[in-house]
């Protein structure tokens, strides 16, 4: 006869708190991530610090969680602290009045649709990011300029689709990446200038999808480490 009794399953309730207008959740004894403010009252220019002190304990801010700011039409700029490593999926999607974001090179992962349908006008990828995820800028109708560093190794589907005002794409990758035909779906590559390394112009002119850009010219190498 089995006399063993199952131990009760216990789950710890997440520890969440607000400080200086931003909501956080503990992820370890020393780290936190930014989460959605239930009042959705993030307004204006938001600065996410590299670290915070709460109840006399210092925490490093390492992540912005999924949907933390999704759909917030009251924010216009975001400055992200230099300990953040991850921006999760949909974080800033449908932030229609978000026109600028400052991202440090500590960020190594930006989730899919993180900025889709936002009001961004320009974007420079941090040098630590290697993958441009699906739908990342889908429907960003005010986006004019994008800078892609040579550290990018993968560009996924629909990442720059429906970017109706995109007129300047700077790509410092020497060998054109193989990308799906829908990456620039409904983005007018006839009107968008593609800037690439001078020795790579011919390769881009022959590469699938990339060759759809009517204007492909040489650019100086962009150093993203100081951006």
UniProtKB/TrEMBL annotation:
InterPro entries: LRR_5, LRR_dom_sf, Surface_bspA-like. It holds the Pfam family LRR_5. SUPFAM superfamilies: L domain-like. It comes from the Bacteria. This is Leucine rich repeat-containing protein. It comes from Wenyingzhuangia marina.
